[in-house]
Design goal:
- The complex is a heterodimer.
- Chain A has 14 helices and ten strands.
- Chain A has a six-stranded parallel beta sheet, sandwiched between helices. A two-stranded antiparallel sheet of chain A has the order 1-2. Chain A has a two-stranded antiparallel sheet with strand order 7-8.
- In chain A, about 45% of the residues lie in helices and about 10% in strands.
- Chain A is an alpha/beta fold.
- Chain A folds into two domains: about 30-340, Rossmann fold; about 350-385, no CATH class.
- Chain B has two domains: about 1-180, Rossmann fold; about 195-320, Rossmann fold (3-Layer(aba) Sandwich), CATH 3.40.50.920.
- Chain B is built from twelve helices and 14 strands.
- Chain B has helices at about 5-20, 45, 60-70, 90-95, 100-105, 135-140, 150-160, 210-225, 240-250, 265-275, 300-305, 310-320, and strands spanning about 1-5, 25, 50-55, 75-80, 110-120, 145, 165-170, 180, 195-200, 205-210, 225-230, 235, 255-260, 285-290.
- In chain B, the strands form four sheets. Chain B has a five-stranded mixed beta sheet, with helices on both faces. Chain B has a four-stranded mixed beta sheet with strand order 5-7-6-12. In chain B, strands 3-2-4 form a three-stranded parallel beta sheet, sandwiched between helices.
- In chain B, helix 3 (about 60-70) runs parallel beside helix 4 and helix 8 packs across helix 12 (about 310-320).
- Classes of the chains: A alpha/beta, B alpha/beta.
- The interface between A and B is large, with 45 and 47 residues.
Chain lengths: ~375, ~325
C-alpha cells in the first residue's frame, strides 16, 4: 500500500487504531561526514580547500599539546596538586578541529571540558592551572581572548552563547560564537531553549555537541531515544550535521563552514568521539563500562590516524616528535611553576562581588580579616602547594 | 507629570533606551502588546524590534540570553511576565548572573535589569502573586530592588541602568496603578542600597517595603502612633545603618513584609538589630508577614496577606511592652 501512495503521504501506524494515511508535513534528514579515516586515508571529494600538509601538521601539534596538558593536569590531581579534573583524552580532534576553524573575531563559550580549545585559542596556561588548582583568578581568561571561562552547570552556557551571538550581530562586530555541550547536555532544557532562541534570533552561533558516548555513567543509548543528537536541531528549525569527531579535518571543515554561514543563523554539529578516560578524577568508569568497549575506541584514537597520515607522507619523524614533546612539556612546566606560586587573597572574594562595596559586606570582610583566622588557611595552602 | 508606577517605569525605560544604544528590552509579549501590564507600551514602535524584542516563551532562555548579551557589552532589560514563572530561570540568576563578576575577578560583569511583577492582592491566578525577594537576596551578587511608589520606581530603574551589576527589579503588581504621583520628566537617580525614611518618629521603627508600605502608613496614621517608617527600597544589599540608627533612637523595631514569615528578610533584619542594638531595645523585635505557606488561590488571599488590622494589632502589642 505504501508504494502506491503519492510521495508526500505516509502511513501512520497507531497502536490499537490501525493504519491512517496522512499527509506528510515535514521530513528531516541528518548527514554524516568523515574525511580522514582511522588509517589516515583522505576522502579528497570532501577535503577542505584551505587545508594543506602544513595545516595538518599544525593540527597534529595542537592535538599532541592538548594531550600532554591533559596528562599533566591528571597527574597533578593524583598528587593532590589540583582539584577534581575533567580529562579530555580521546577528544582532541573535536576540540582542536573546531578551535582552529575559529577566527580572531569568533567567540568561544565552553562547558568544563574544552581544555584543548582553550589551549589552541590562546588561553594562558598559567590561568588553566590556577583554575584547576581551585582559584577564581584562573577563570579570568585574559585580555584579547574572545571567550568566557569554564561553565560547570550542564548546558547552562548555551543561552549565554546565543546572547553573545546576538550582541555580535547587533553591534555588527562580525564573527560567530562557537559553544560546546556534551551528549548528556542535550537532554537539558537549556539546550532546547538556546537552540530555539538562536533560531528565532538568527543568531550567529555554532553549537558543537561533543558526543563522547558517556555522561558520567549514562551511555548515549540511554540518554535519549533519538538516532542522532544532531537531529534535535530539526525541532528548532536549525540545520545540523553529524561528523566523525575523531577526524580533525572533518570537524575543522564542518565548523569552518558553519561559521562562514553564521550570518544566516545558527548551526548544530554533532561530533562522534569517545571519552577514553574517566568523567572526572572522582569517577571510576570500570564500574559501568567494559574494557572491550574502551579497547575498540583505542583503535580510533584521533591522534593515531593523523600521525599515520604524516608518517606515510614522510612529513614527521621520531626526532621531530621528541623535540615537540620536550618543547611542549617545558611550556607546560613553566606555566605550572608560575601557577603554583599564586597566593590567594581572601579579600578578593568580597571585593569582586559587586561594582561597589556595600557597607554590610565590607563589615564582614574587615571582621574576618581582623579576626586572623584567614592566616591558618593561607599557611596550610602553602604547605599543600609543595 | 502626574503618573502611576506603570507610567513612571515606562518613562524610565524610554529614557534608558534613548540614552544607551546598547540597552535592549526583551521578554514575552513586551513588544507589540506592550507587556501584560503595559509597562513597555509604545517602546516597540519607537525603538524597533532589534531593541524591544518579543521572545519565545522561555524564561531560562530569556535570562540566559540576557546574561550572554551583558557579557558582550550590552545592557539587557529582560521582563519575566510574573515572578512565579521566574523559577525556571533561577539557575541562570543564581549560578551565572550572581557569580560572573566574582568568579572572573571583575574581568567580566553582567549588567542587566530583570524586571518582574511581584506580590498579590489583585485576585490573580495561582503562581501570579509570589514575593520572592529573599531567594535572590540570599545568594549574594544579585541586587534586589523593590519600589513602593512611582517616583522611586523611575529613579531606581534609572540608577539600575547606570550600574554595572545584575539588578532584580521587583514591581508590586498591586501598586502599579494604585495611585498617581508627581514624577519629574527628566532623568534622575534614586540611590540603590539606601533606604528611605518615609516618616520620622520617636517611639517605634517599622521597616517595610513594596506592597506593605501603604498598609503600614495607613495603620500608623489611623492609630496616630509616633512611629518612624523605613521603606527599604533595596532588599540586597541591606541598608543596615539606616535601620540601626533608627532603632537606637526609638528603642522598638517591627518588620512588615508580604513574603512568608519563616526564613524571610524580616528574620535577617531582626538578627541584625539583635546584633547591633539589642541593649537599646525596650521590647522584643516583632515581625508581621504572610503565613508560612505558599501563596494561596485568590479566594484565600485576604486571609493570607498582612492587612492594616494585623499591623495595627502588632503596633498595640509592641507599644504595650
Amino acid at each position: 500500500m505504501e508504494g502506491s501512495l503519492p510521495k508526500p503521504y505516509i502511513i501512520l501506524h497507531i497502536i490499537n487504531i490501525g493504519e491512517l494515511v496522512l499527509k506528510q508535513v515535514y521530513n528531516g534528514t541528518i548527514s554524516y561526514m568523515q574525511i580522514m579515516d582511522e588509517f589516515g586515508s583522505l576522502d579528497m571529494s570532501l577535503f577542505p580547500k584551505d587545508v594543506d600538509d602544513n595545516k595538518i601538521l599544525d593540527m597534529y601539534r595542537w592535538m599532541s599539546f592538548a594531550r600532554a596538558l591533559d596528562a599533566k593536569a591528571l597527574s597533578l590531581q593524583r598528587q593532590g596538586r589540583a582539584v577534581t579534573y575533567a580529562p579530555i583524552l580521546g577528544q582532541e580532534a573535536t576540540q582542536i578541529g573546531s578551535a582552529l576553524a575559529m577566527g580572531d573575531n569568533d567567540f568561544f563559550v565552553p562547558n568544563f571540558r574544552q581544555h584543548g580549545v582553550f589551549l589552541a585559542r590562546g588561553l594562558s596556561l598559567e590561568a588553566f592551572f590556577i583554575y584547576w588548582r581551585g582559584y577564581e583568578e584562573g577563570s579570568t581568561v585574559g585580555k584579547g581572548v574572545n571567550a568566557v571561562s569554564y561553565i560547570v552547570p550542564v548546558a547552562t552556557q548555551l543561552p549565554h552563547a546565543v546572547g553573545i551571538a546576538y550582541a555580535l550581530k547587533y553591534k555588527n562586530a562580525g564573527g560567530a560564537v562557537v559553544t560546546y555541550v556534551g551528549d548528556g547536555g542535550t537532554s537539558e532544557g537549556n539546550f532546547y531553549e538556546a537552540m530555539n532562541f538562536a533560531g528565532v534570533m538568527k543568531a550567529p552561533v555554532v553549537f558543537i555537541i561533543e558526543n563522547n558516548g558517556w555522561a558520567i555513567s549514562m551511555p548515549r543509548s540511554k540518554q535519549t531515544m533519538t538516532a542522532t543528537l544532531a537531529q534535535k536541531a530539526i525541532a528548532a528549525g536549525i540545520p545540523a550535521i553529524q561528523v566523525d569527531g575523531n577526524d580533525v579535518i572533518a570537524v575543522y571543515k564542518a565548523t569552518k563552514d558553519a561559521i562562514a554561514n553564521s550570518a544566516n543563523g545558527p548551526f548544530v554539529i554533532e561530533c562522534l568521539t569517545y571519552r577514553m578516560s574517566m568523567h572526572t578524577t572522582a569517577d571510576d568508569p570500570t564500574k559501568y563500562r567494559s574494557d572491550e568497549e574502551v579497547a575498540a575506541w583505542k583503535d580510533k584514537d584521533p591522534i593515531l590516524r593523523i600521525k599515520a597520515y604524516l608518517m606515510k607522507k614522510n612529513l614527521w619523524s621520531d626526532k621531530q616528535e621528541s623535540e615537540m614533546a620536550d618543547a611542549q612539556l617545558k611550556q607546560i612546566d613553566d606555566a605550572l611553576e608560575k601557577a603554583e606560586a599564586f597566593k590567594p587573597d581572601p579579600k578578593s572574594m568580597f571585593e569582586n562581588l559587586y561594582s561597589f562595596m556595600p557597607d554590610v559586606l565590607k563589615e564582614e570582610m574587615d571582621a574576618a580579616e581582623a579576626a586572623g583566622y584567614w592566616q591558618s588557611g593561607l599557611q596550610a595552602k602553602e604547605v599543600d602547594g609543595k | 507629570m502626574m503618573t502611576n508606577m506603570v507610567g513612571a517605569l515606562n518613562n524610565a525605560l524610554d529614557l534608558i533606551l534613548a540614552e544607551n544604544k546598547n540597552a535592549v528590552v526583551l521578554g514575552e509579549d513586551i513588544g507589540k502588546d506592550g507587556g501584560v501590564f503595559r509597562v513597555t507600551d509604545g517602546l516597540y514602535e519607537k525603538y524597533g524590534e532589534l531593541r524591544v524584542m518579543d521572545t519565545p516563551l522561555s524564561e531560562a532562555g530569556i535570562i540566559g540570553v540576557s546574561v550572554g548579551m551583558a557579557l558582550a557589552g550590552m545592557l539587557p532589560i529582560p521582563e519575566i511576565q510574573f515572578a512565579g514563572f521566574m523559577y525556571l530561570a533561577f539557575d541562570q540568576l543564581i549560578n551565572h548572573a550572581a557569580r560572573y563578576r566574582s568568579r572572573s575577578r571583575s574581568t567580566k560583569s553582567v549588567p542587566m535589569i530583570v524586571r518582574t511583577p511581584v506580590s498579590g492582592g489583585v485576585r490573580t491566578l495561582e503562581h501570579h502573586s509570589d514575593s520572592p525577594e529573599e531567594y535572590y537576596s540570599h545568594v549574594g551578587g544579585l541586587i534586589v530592588v523593590e519600589p513602593s511608589n512611582p517616583y522611586d520606581a523611575k529613579g531606581l530603574l534609572i540608577k539600575a541602568a547606570h550600574m554595572n551589576d545584575p539588578v532584580l527589579f521587583l514591581e508590586p503588581t498591586k501598586l502599579y496603578r494604585l495611585f498617581k504621583q508627581e514624577v519629574p520628566d527628566n532623568m534622575y537617580e534614586i540611590p540603590i542600597g539606601k533606604a528611605d525614611v518615609v516618616k520620622q518618629g520617636d517611639d517605634l521603627t517599622i521597616v517595610t517595603w513594596g506592597t506593605m508600605v501603604p498598609v503600614v502608613k495607613n495603620a500608623v496614621e489611623n492609630k496616630g502612633t509616633n512611629a518612624e517608617i523605613i521603606d527599604l527600597r533595596t532588599i540586597n544589599p541591606l541598608d543596615e545603618n539606616t535601620i540601626i540608627k533608627s532603632v537606637k533612637k526609638t528603642g522598638r523595631a517591627m518588620i512588615v513584609h508580604e513574603a512568608q514569615l519563616s526564613f524571610g528578610a524580616g528574620a535577617e533584619i531582626a538578627a541584625r538589630i539583635a546584633d547591633k542594638a539589642i541593649f537599646e531595645l525596650q521590647a522584643p523585635v516583632t515581625r508581621v508577614a504572610s503565613a508560612s505557606l505558599p501563596y494561596p488561590f485568590p479566594g484565600y488571599e485576604q486571609f493570607y496577606i498582612p492587612n492594616e488590622m494585623k499591623v495595627s494589632q502588632a503596633i498595640d502589642r509592641i507599644m504595650s511592652v
